[in-house]
Amino acid sequence: MFFLLSLLSVAFTPIYVGIVFLGFTPDHRCRSPGVAELSLRCGWSPAEELNYTVPGPGPGGEASARQCRRYEVDWNQSTLSCADPLASLDTNRSRLPLGPCRDGWLYETPGSSIVTEFNLVCANSWMLDLFQSSVNVGFFIGSMSIGYLADRFGRKLCLLTTILINAASGVLMAISPTYTWMLIFRLIQGLVSKASWLIGFILITEFVGRSYRRTVGIFYQAAFTVGLLMLAGVAYALPHWRWLQFTVTLPNFCFLLYYWCIPESPRWLISQNKNAEAMRIFKHIAKKNGKSLPASLQRLRLEEETGKKLNPSFLDLVRTPQIRKHTLILMYNW
């Protein structure tokens, strides 16, 4: 159970830090009509084409002038020479007028990213920040709500639901035709991906005894680090963002098989007075581990309790002095 649930932590990595590869911003410059033809006619090397046709760095050495501005020059003029095409217009290049990149950009990369496909550079660079911010908003809302939902409807149901939504939205993001649709599906991924990761953590700590909770919690985090290493290798092999998004998303569909592999948390079942089902899971765990049931569990009543079920509430986080202390420590720590 621990190994299977740790795979959720591995698969969470591409959503948490995927912006590093999906939103990679390579060196770029304005696309100027006629430059490619002039370069071909003159036989320029790539370095010569840059030197003759792209503005130099700004006054403070910033690269924005080279990346976001272009010479307002008609490069199809027949009077332009190959030796120094701008010399015939003005001997001092700094006096030549500059304008925005009206015809898009050229990117120096063999692959692609959402930046190169949707031109999220220069005046549109804020849209890349919005893309990652949407994930973080989803993380916040999902983290705040999933605890209540998992207490209300059960860990397993919430886990499978969030896995399905995460996988579907990941695939839809990979085939999104526009930036807006991509942003929407990324927000949905943020809403459910952190939630499924948290439910996996809850299940792991509830499956084991108190003395093992710290250990499995640490190794669950270590699985995330393994995901970081794997993501770097996959991104190196797949430099095109759509194929990368497909590759890191499709394994999530395999987690739907957990319907048959992962039982409901017996601790949650007891809180819902479903003692018979909890007892069945306890016996299964004991059998698989070659252990006998503790006396405290053997005394558990098998019939359904007639008492009132425990209803989850956000007030549970501050209801007792001990849990109140833990809540404040964790809030401060995060």
From TrEMBL:
It is found in: Membrane. The chain crosses the membrane at residues 130-150, 157-175, 181-204, 216-237, 243-262. It holds the Pfam family Sugar_tr. It is a multi-pass membrane protein. One of its GO terms (cellular component) is membrane. GO terms for molecular function: transmembrane transporter activity. The keyword Chaperone does not apply. Gene3D superfamilies: MFS general substrate transporter like domains. The keyword Transit peptide does not apply. Keywords: Membrane, Transmembrane, Transmembrane helix. Residues 76-334 form the Major facilitator superfamily (MFS) profile domain. This is Solute carrier family 22 member 2. It comes from Macaca fascicularis. The lineage of its organism: Eukaryota, Metazoa, Chordata, Craniata, Vertebrata.
